[in-house]
Amino acid sequence: MAEAGYRVTGRVQGVGFRWWTRAQAARLGLVGTVRNAEDGSVEVQARGSDYALAELERLLVEGPPHAAVARVDRIPASLSSTAAAFEIVR
Question: What are the phi and psi torsion angles at 14 (to 5°)?
Fold first, then answer.
C-alpha cells in the first residue's frame, strides 16, 4: 500500500468538494481523510494502490462541477496507521 497527501487550491470550499472527494476515494478503494484548511484549500490524505492514488490525483485536478481547481500539490503523507475508511474531517 502506498500513501499520498495533496493540497488542492482554487474555489474548493463551499462547493461540495469534500463530499465529492470522499465518494471518489471510496469508489477507488482508498482510505484516508479530506478536510478544509484554514487557508481556503482542501487537504487530502490517502492510502491505497498506486493506481488508485494516481486516479484520485487526476480526479482532484478536475474537481466536482461547481469547483474551480487552480492546482493540486503533493504534500507529505501523514495518515494515521489505523485509518480504515475514507472520512471527512471537520
Answer: 80, 15
Asked about 18 being catalytic, the answer comes back as: yes
Q: In whole angstroms, what is the distance from residue 12 CA to residue 62 CA?
A: 11
Catalytic, out of 18, 27, 71, 74: 18
Q: Which pTM was predicted? A: 0.94
Give phi and psi for 52, each to the nearest 5: -65, -40
Binned at pLDDT 50, 70 and 90, residue 82 comes out as confident
Q: How far apart are CA 30 and CA 20, in angstroms?
A: 14
Backbone angles phi, psi at 64, to 5 degrees: -75, 170
- Annotated catalytic residue 36: yes
CA–CA separation, 20 vs 63, rounded Å?
8
Q: Write out pLDDT tens, residues 45-60.
A: 999 999 999 999 999 9
Q: Is the distance from CB of 28 to CB of 48 less than 8 angstroms?
A: yes
